[in-house]
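User: I'm new to structure prediction. If I give you an amino acid sequence, what do you actually give back? Let's try with this one:
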Amino acid sequence: MSDPGRRALAYTSLAHFVNDGNFFLFPPVLIAYYESIPGTKVVALGSVAIIYNVLSGFLSTPPLGRYADRHDRDSLLIFTGLLLNAVSVLIFMLPFVYHSLLFPLIITGSVVLGVAQSFYHPLGASVLSHVYDKPRASKAMGTNQAFGSLGRAVTPYLISSLILIGGEVLGLGIFAVYMFAASFVTLAGLHFFSRSRFAVAQGKPGVEQQPTVEPFSRYSGFVYFLTAVVFIRSMFMLAVNTYVPTYMSDIYHSKYLMSSVLSAGLIVSVAGGPPIFGRVTASRGGGRTTILVTSGISALAFLAFMLTRDIYITGVAYAVFAMTAFTGFPVLMGYVNEVVPRRFSTTSNGLVWGGLGGNTVGGAAGIGVMSLLLLYLPLGRVLYIMIAFAAVSFALTPLLPSKKKVSAASASGAR
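Assistant: Good question. You get back a string of structure tokens that encode the predicted 3D arrangement of the chain. For your 415 residues, that looks like this:
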């Protein structure tokens, strides 16, 4: 595979598939299996998820984002994140052997998973933004996100099938081996990439060759406001997804049926959502319009999901929800790519994806709110309440800068 663009897209897509495949590992999927361990409470298990979301958000920036923007080791950093994801699977396997150590082990696993999940998204977006020009970068991110969505779709069914065949310990052990292997394949595939190489090839100063003329503060207002909108958006989207598998398991009284509906809905969403919305972000509509559309549709689809008990309508509603909710990578990263210069790419991507607000930490805050409400209210009612956060995010989105202003900022900021 000689074309660097296709090679970068292929191996970052593999990394996205593996990384996001681990997204539903804990708590969404494994929480249903941990319930069988004596003395386990769902609310307590769900609350532990706050740890890995907060860690993932805070580590993705400033530490990781600034390090990546100042050095040229993206492939090694992506490999490190995938390797730690594999380690977390082994740790989450151990409670099925040592029941008395359930909470110490899942807390440890959450810490490792939180560190692991902080790597890929800002780094993968940065690699693609360096290899492709701005109009094509959002399209490439859409294709890339499709593989991330496919990973989320396949993994719940894969884990449930492996556990059904070999039990929790053997099933998760096999899954961990696959993740270790994929991390090394990704490292070998992305070894060719360096920021300085593509900056020079495109007639731009290299990462370590040029001083930063413009300060990041020139773009910070836009980045911080977008981060706030994404924070509220994710309070709804990521938090409800934490408990959706448990909700479906309670309704259908079957873990296997739950994982099948979950995977089927996510698979249906793969082909449509990420590629389509990645292209829309790169088109005349721009990032703001795409965020508005995806936020509105996801809220309505989730409401439909809650209002039915028909398994087929549930699957369709969840597929539409997933198709629009899990478009953050091409939409958010593509929008940032329209405004912020490449030299600040990982820092900006990390802030929007994690940081003090953003996608990941917003999810942690949403899980915290849900966990608190679940002390007093049933799960179904709490899921309805969380739709309010989607409405607030939808109302704030029109205040983001328009495509015209984005283009003007990009043109004046280019060097």
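You can read the tokens as a compact description of the fold. Here is one thing that stands out. Residues 134-190 form the longest helix (57 residues).
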